[in-house]
Amino acid sequence: MQKNYATNFVPNKYILSPEMFNSIYKGDLGEVVGEFIFKEFLNIELQKIRTNERYEKFNFYKDKVFVDFKNFSGYKDFNRVAKVEDARNKLKDCGGDVALIVNILKPRGNPEIFVDRNEDVIIIPYLYDLEMEQFNTKAIFEIQKLFNKQQ
Q: Contact, 101 vs 124, CB < 8 A?
């Protein structure tokens, strides 16, 4: 799946500011990588949210599961209580059953899968560990279990 995203940068007549790189470009790359992993490794075809009242609330959906790919590097920059409540409110606005918040790469530390007590918001702390060069099998199991239950 080729999307023609730049993976290296050379001098050019245009500039990508650090703020745009961190806030927009890396976010878009994370969505592409997340979609690719779901499709190619988990065999889950997600639908991109492009317009309407669901736009910018989540990145993708399938049935009543809404998926948002994030880039959080650890517990200090990820306020779980606020993020869970925000995801729950957006989920209600979208008419979904489950919000799945997915971090692509493993942050430093030893994060575990956190399932909110009502189980309508699931946070996956990482899909892939760069240091170990392996997928998070516990996260993969949780995701597959969620989507199998939806069918």
A: yes
